[in-house]
Write a structure and sequence with these properties.
alpha+beta, elongated, two-stranded antiparallel sheet, three-stranded antiparallel sheet, 9 helices, about 45% helix
Length: about 280
């Protein structure tokens, strides 16, 4: 079969790409409307869009002929939700490092790559730069922080827990290691902000990791942490949008994020479900 490149028709579709309007292609039966849409799909695939992200329905296909508009609506909606969920899971398991896209079908290879990045960060950016001698303790501190993203922690609290688990240490060492990890940009510290008193508080900060794929590599998946994982995702997005981010707690409730710029301040409560009693 010979395909004729209909640039004018394709350019018409491309001019209206990403515009929130419905596009109609009309013409006599057999004029090539389906082929034009196939060409349109090929354009997206060539620009890096995966086939899984494209939803295509041919109403002349017998499998769709008996569906009414409501069934088609929910079919498309579920496809979109499945796509979003799949992308989200890839993000928290495979990592957000650009090169891991080449390993999207091979988790072991992706983790080998991430392990190399993680080792480089710890050994070169942290151990060598800050002259750290107890590498095992550094790894314990990093692993503890990764495992407790979104929890309020203090230096003393971390020191006591590690000591109780057989890794004897002290507040000064923990403070040094934490600062080294923060300076390497593998973790972020989010301090508490007293809105009424308009001041930063030194205790009970939260920590988030720069890449959730590294967390999965070190800690494995823990579905009970879904809320804190979502917090981590939202925190990184707020940074990307240029916000300064803090946490706040009043006498009764905690505000997950207080995000501010020179133009505005927003308050964000993160919850997996609006039915959560802690959501307000």
């Amino acid at each position: 079969m010979i395909f004729i490149d209909r640039k004018e028709c394709l350019n018409f579709l491309l001019r209206h790409k990403d515009k929130q309007v419905i596009k109609f292609i009309s013409g006599i039966k057999g004029c090539g409307r389906t082929t034009l849409l196939d060409t349109y799909k090929d354009y997206f695939i060539k620009t890096g869009i995966s086939k899984e992200q494209l939803i295509s329905i041919n109403l002349e296909d017998i499998s769709y002929q008996d569906k009414n508009y409501k069934e088609l609506y929910f079919y498309i909606k579920n496809k979109l939700i499945e796509s979003i969920v799949a992308k989200y899971n890839d993000y928290i398991i495979f990592s957000s490092f650009p090169y891991t896209i080449w390993y999207k079908d091979d988790l072991k290879a992706a983790q080998d790559y991430l392990r190399g990045i993680y080792s480089t960060i710890l050994l070169k950016d942290v151990v060598q730069r800050y002259k750290i001698t107890d590498v095992m303790m550094l790894e314990s501190v990093a692993s503890f922080i990764f495992d407790n993203i979104g929890n309020r922690l203090s230096v003393n609290n971390i020191s006591n827990i590690l000591t109780a688990n057989g890794r004897t240490t002290n507040d000064k060492t923990i403070e040094k290691y934490l600062q080294a990890l923060i300076n390497s940009l593998i973790i972020y510290q989010v301090k508490r902000y007293n809105i009424k008193g308009r001041q930063l508080l030194k205790t009970q900060a939260k920590y988030y990791i720069a890449d959730l794929g590294i967390r999965y590599l070190i800690c494995g998946i823990k579905w009970k942490d879904e809320g804190h994982i979502l917090e981590n995702v939202i925190y990184l997005e707020l940074l990307r949008r240029g916000y300064n981010v803090y946490i706040d707690q009043n006498e009764e409730n905690e505000i997950d994020f207080v995000a501010s710029t020179h133009e505005d301040t927003i308050f964000i409560q993160v919850s997996l479900s609006l039915r959560d009693s802690n959501t307000y």
